[in-house]
Design goal:
The chain is an alpha/beta fold. Helices cover 36% and strands 31% of the residues. It has a single domain, classed as ABC-type transport auxiliary lipoprotein component (Rossmann fold, 3-Layer(aba) Sandwich), CATH 3.40.50.10610.
């Protein structure tokens, strides 16, 4: 009787793992609704313009794909450059920065977005170059912000993704040179 129960549990575990693997291999785009959540405050004004997603420029990955190391592709309904632009706009507005088309201009380049999900945990890397220019085109801020973090394998993926993006943007908000560039 005990052997029968153990075999049944084993089959259930194997079937569950099989379904998890198949779900990870899905090529259907995932919806990502970024929710700003910073508790920082900042003052200034800026016009948030286009962001570029450099890993997709060479054609190695799709514009709506985040590089990952495990099987399957991680695809979003929106392109990564649009996700980042909207996230930066939302976070800056939430912390108190005014969105002003007559002010300095903030653009960005996502240099790396990697989810290393091979193994027992997940390593997240998000590296973005933020550039602020004057209306005349003079560069007044040019910095790369890099976030590297580790989460458990079965954490809330969307929560971990939102947190990774937020932490990257907060590095910029906390940079006194950035605040000077938007004031």
């Amino acid at each position: 009787m005990l052997a029968h129960r153990t075999a049944g549990r084993c089959r259930l575990v194997v079937a569950s793992l099989f379904l998890l693997v198949l779900a990870g291999c899905s090529t259907r785009p995932l919806p990502l609704n970024y929710a700003p959540s910073s508790v920082l405050t900042a003052e200034g004004k800026v016009d948030v313009t286009a962001f570029e997603y450099l890993p997709a420029k060479g054609g190695k990955i799709k514009p709506n794909q985040v590089r990952n190391t495990a099987m399957g592709d991680i695809l979003f309904e929106k392109n990564v450059d649009a996700i980042m632009r909207d996230a930066v706009f939302s976070e800056l507005r939430l912390v108190g920065v005014k969105m002003d088309k007559s002010g300095n201009v903030l653009s960005g380049k996502v240099e790396e977005f990697l989810i290393d999900d091979l193994g027992y945990s997940v390593d997240w890397t998000l590296r973005v170059r933020y550039v602020v220019t004057t209306p005349k085109g003079d560069v007044v801020y040019d910095q790369v912000k890099n976030v590297q973090r580790n989460t458990t394998k079965f954490a809330n993926v969307f929560g971990a993704l939102n947190e990774t993006i937020k932490l990257n943007i907060e590095q910029t908000i906390q940079d006194p040179a950035f605040i000077t560039a938007i004031n």
